Amino acid sequence: MFKKSKFLSLIKMKKSVKIKSVVMILLISFILIIPLISAGFFESTWNKITGMGSSTSPVTLNISVTSGAPTVYAVYNLSSAITLTDAPSPTFIIINFSVTDPDGAANLNNASAAINLTKAGEELRYNSSCAVKNYGGNYANYTCNVTLWWWDASGVDWKIYANISDLGGNIGVNGSNFVTVNTLTGFVMSPSALTFATLVAGATNQTSANDPLILNNTGNYDITTNNVKINSTDLVGETNPSKFLWASNFSASIYTGGNIECNITASATQMVNMSDTAVANTILSAGNYTINDGTGQENVYVCLRKIGVELTQQQYSTNQFGSWSVKIV
Amino acid sequence: MKNNRNTCNKVYVSLAMLLLLGISFVSAFSVSSPYMANKELNIFPDSKITDLEFVLQNGGGATEDVIIRVNILEGSEITNITNDNNLYTVSPGAQVPVNLRITLPENVMIGNTYNVRLEFSTVTLGQSGEFGFGTGQEQSFKVVIVKEVVPEKPKPNLLLPLIIGILLILFIIVMFLLRRKQKLSKK
Q1: Which ranges of chain A would DSSP assign to H, the alpha helix?
Q2: pTM
Q3: B169–A contact, CB cutoff 8 A
Q4: Which of A85, A289, B73, B119 gives A91 a disulfide partner, CB atoms 3.0 to 4.6 angstroms apart?
């Protein structure tokens, strides 16, 4: 009897332990599951399973270091968008930022204040010697001068990184601001005069004595293939306006040698009177043309394919039909 | 006699051509335009008027003023230049704004597109005997009427309270069952 009651109480005890264990497991599971829920684990898993999670939402992580690192804030450029100065001048832009340091502004290493401008595929633009504008207490303001160049690409995604370190080597960085660079389109052409050595009536395939015309891209906009055009007009005799030097007797090409710039059945382009005529294969990409190695440059060779035998001595000009024009599109 | 005449002509033409083509035609200018991704300007139907500023510059080592003419080649039904005239004198190193206004018509609808094409060209003053040569460029972009995007209100996250509720209910059920079992076993 004693044995039986002892056995029953043992079973009861075991059951009670079991119940407590189940309750404990449930409680622990509950405690463990809460952070997962609040971190969106189930939602993201559910979205992954159902495919309903196509929309993503940005997650901002603010990591605060409590070891006295400086905090960079209020990074700004005065203009909403930057108009680059065309070549060959640089463009200077001012970017200001503020810093707070819990150990006081005197703890900031002013010489380390710097601005980096970055954009995918572009050269880094930076100023590593910003000036202190003013400071007091825990705060300091810096002003930085960053140099951009005419070939720096346009876009709204030039990211500004403002950074500074304190005397303890703690670094504060702010990379949450962007600056817009506008599009700049332009070119300059040289030499200043186009000459032909000797031209005689009835002559053919006369190339210029001092070409190529060198076109330099003075902006940040890439002129793509066949978008350099020449609008030509007939030259009219000034004394006898019945005599013409026809525009269609001129041709242009990016190639030279063996009078290929005169060969309109090959690669040369025949001019068309009063029409924007694309010079075949021209490309005028943005770049630092001052290197003079072809970067940001295109050459155009000109040929006078035919001089009419009927031409007489007089001046021929564009006065009547207008000037020729080299255009980029 | 005929040969002599031809020779004479050849000499004359030769002299004339040397004179004609040895004319200076260097000119340079550039145009800064507002950045537009893919050359598209997206406008909401309610934005009846949109102003754009283009900036003319005379760089490239220029030493003389350049006169630039601005023409609207396409899209004049919605665009106009708000400056007094379409001729601009730009000194070396100077920046001169050209203000363009886009006015949407009354019946504009979402999805409507308008092509705008502007021509900027140097004005070469014609002189006797000159082989005038200028430079120019075209700026083109598309005006697209788009629907105004109203920022979505963040949806309340119902998943968290739902899971907590389910867990609580489960917990209560388990507790109830356990208590019931305990009572039964006591009996």
Answers
A1: 2-38, 41-50
A2: 0.76
A3: no
A4: A85
Contact A42 B20 (CB under 8 A): no
Of B10, B21, B127, the CB nearest to A196: B21
Cα–Cα distance, A108 to A98 (Å, whole number): 12
pLDDT at A26 over 80: no
Provide the CATH number for the domain around residue B52. 2.60.40.10
Please report the pLDDT score of residue A67 as a whole number. 54
Summarize pLDDT for B23-33 with one digit per residue, the tens.
444 567 999 99
Q: Which whole-number Å values give the CA distances from B77 to A64, B47, B103, in the listed order? A: 55, 16, 9
The residue range of the domain holding B75 is: 25-145
**B95: its two tokens:** 């920046």
Domain A71-181 coded CATH 1.20.58: no
Kind plus residue range of the DSSP H or E element containing B3? helix B2-21
Name the residue with tokens 């710039």: A261
Q: Which of A86, A279, A289 to mutate to test the interface with B (most CBs of B within 10 A)?
A: A86
Specify if B84 maps to a domain. Answer: yes
Contact A327, B121 (CB under 8 A): yes
Percentage of chain A lying above the pLDDT 70 cut: 79
Rounded average pLDDT over A186-200 = 78
In the stretch 10-69 of chain B, residues with CB closer than 8 A to chain A read 10-37, 55, 57, 59-62
pLDDT band of residue B119 (cuts 50, 70, 90) is very high
Token pair in block for residue A175: 């990379």
Q: How far apart are the first and last CA of chain A?
A: 109
Query: What span, in angstroms and rounded, lies between the C-alpha atoms of B131 and A235?
Result: 8
Q: Give the residue with greater pLDDT, A6 vs A85.
A: A85
Q: What's the pLDDT tens digit per position in B35-78?
A: 998 899 999 998 889 999 999 999 877 888 999 999 999 999 99
- All residues of chain B having their beta carbon less than 8 Å from the beta carbon of residue A30 are 167, 171
Tally A–B CB contacts below 8 A.
Answer: 223
Question: How far is CA A236 from each of CA A221, A258, B16, rounded to the nearest angstrom?
Answer: 36, 30, 13
Three-state secondary structure of B15-35? HHHHHHHCCECCCEEEEEECC
CA–CA gap between residue A253 and residue A270 (Å, rounded): 9
For residue B44, being part of any structural domain is answered with yes
- Say if residues A69 and A95 touch (Cβ distance below 8 Å): no
Residue B175 lies in a domain: no
Closest Cα to residue A328, out of B122, B80, B130, B126? B122
d(CA B54, CA B99): 6
- Give domain status of residue B132, yes or no: yes
ipTM entry? 0.74
Please give the tally of structural domains in chain B.
1
